[in-house]
Design a protein that fits this description.
single chain, mainly beta, seven-stranded mixed beta sheet
């Protein structure tokens, strides 16, 4: 079983910055893609950014130029640096990872979520 633990959320004023972290643990042989998603009240969960094992990144148009996704494969940790935050970035942010366990089983796991609130 693979677990993801997020941290770094909080309350920040518009224009401020936050850095989210997500660490994977468990019987992990290899992590392929990792990503951040978010869900605002009354809305569907949406993709924020993803990064592959090779380092290729993909961003939602709404966060391009403000957010940066990165990963430390040795630490099995994913990061999201969020700058110039806007009230519309307010949401619960979820970490996601997929890969292969030592039992040669595919996994796709979600973290428990971390709240980000941006005040105007």
């Amino acid at each position: 079983q693979v677990q993801l633990a997020e941290s770094g959320g909080g309350l920040v004023q518009a224009g401020g910055s936050l850095r989210l972290s997500c660490t994977a643990s468990g019987s992990i042989y290899k992590i392929n893609a990792m990503g951040w998603y978010r869900q605002a009240p009354g809305k569907q969960r949406e993709l924020v950014a993803t990064v592959t094992s090779g380092g290729s990144t993909n961003y939602a148009d709404s966060v391009k130029g403000r957010f940066t996704i990165s990963r430390d494969s040795a630490k099995k940790t994913l990061y999201l640096q969020m700058n110039n935050l806007k009230p519309e970035d307010t949401a619960v942010y979820y970490c996601n990872a997929n890969g292969i366990t030592f039992a040669t089983e595919d996994f796709r796991s979600w973290g428990q979520g971390t709240q980000v609130t941006v005040s105007s």
